[in-house]
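Schema walk-through. Below, the input block comes first and the output block second. Nothing else is stored per chain. Lengths vary across the set, and this one has 265 residues.
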Amino acid sequence: MNILKKLVSFALTAAVVAGIGSTSFAAETSVNIAKTFPDKNLQKVVSKYDKDKNGTLSLAEMKKFTELSIWSEDCVEDLTGIDKLKYTTRLIVFEGDMETINLSKCDNIEYANIICTNQLTSFTGGWGLEYLELSFCTKLSSLDLSRSYNLETFKFIRNTKFRGTVDLNASPYLEHVELLDLNCTGVRFNKGANLKYIECTRTKIESLNLNVMNFNTLTRILVYDNPNLRSLYLPSNSFSVLMSHRTNNGYSYRDSQRSISISTK
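--- output ---
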């Protein structure tokens, strides 16, 4: 997390603390497992941290519950209630059975890795997310990152159901982006993003405009096997573009045995 983000996060946290008061925090000192998590299988996963087996997560138990990992054998279909796990900062789902993951109220979750969750159709990110990977979720068609202000790394891989534009406009701290094996037709970045690495491979993107951002920190762009790509707009900053070379007219680029027009401004 960079210094500016830390200052913003501190200021927002201080404002929240000033406005809430001590009585609201008292309500977060324990979580009743049965009442908080309607999914019976999720209750079983969470109960592993209920060391005294009283059906409630105490404050001490929640502080040790920093990672929620859900595997295929857990058969969890509903993540309702995880916003109450205020000390859980990491979410890992592998071959989960849920159709929706909504982290809009889970501002404490900074890391989310969702892999091979083939029933998933909708994902909504939270404010605290810094790292997000969505891979091999073949039914995922809805992606909402409008609250993911702190996102730094985004990997969107082989989610073949997704169409339209990957919208990353809400993420000014974005540094690393991977878009691989997708049917998306476009991508939208925040104009202030300080990107260092971009990979766009085997998508349906027709035009990629990277000239809208601050490229002072960009070191690498990988773009290949995008059959519909016809134009790639780049700033004149110095960086590496894979499989490209400098000519008198700018960059000459070849992708899947086709010439693509690249403009530098």
